[in-house]
Specification:
The protein has no helices and eleven strands. It is mainly β.
């Protein structure tokens, strides 16, 4: 089965930088949009950044100018470079990707979530 594997989380001092990475493993697939979410203050997870295949990145207002999302298409990897981190950025971050599977009769699109990775920013 398909998995999204996240890495790069941890503890960092305020004002510092951290880069998250995410790559899939486990099956034959095509990746469409990739994104990073975080848990946020409520029940619904909030979008941090997203980047479709061949498209432009989007960011939530609170991270604009500080975070950069990028993709290495050859490695099927998405990155989230987080700069000038603030304590309020502390959260569990989730990698999210939309997949299609060539062997399917209907060629549906499926959304997969990583297990989440902790980012803690100290003041």
């Amino acid at each position: 089965q398909l998995r999204l594997v996240e890495s790069g989380g941890g503890l960092v001092q305020a004002g510092g930088s951290l880069t998250l990475s995410c790559a899939p493993t486990g099956s034959t697939f095509t990746i469409n949009k990739m994104a990073w979410y975080r848990q946020g203050p409520g029940w619904e997870r909030e979008l941090v950044a997203a980047i479709p295949s061949g498209g432009s990145a989007i960011y939530t207002d609170s991270v604009k100018g500080r975070f950069i999302i990028s993709r290495d298409y050859a490695k099927n990897t998405v990155y989230l470079q987080m700069n000038r981190l603030k304590p309020e950025d502390s959260d569990v971050y989730y990698c999210v990707a939309d997949f299609t599977f060539p062997g399917e009769y209907y060629q549906g699109e499926y959304t997969y979530w990583g297990q989440g990775i902790q980012v803690t920013v100290s003041s």
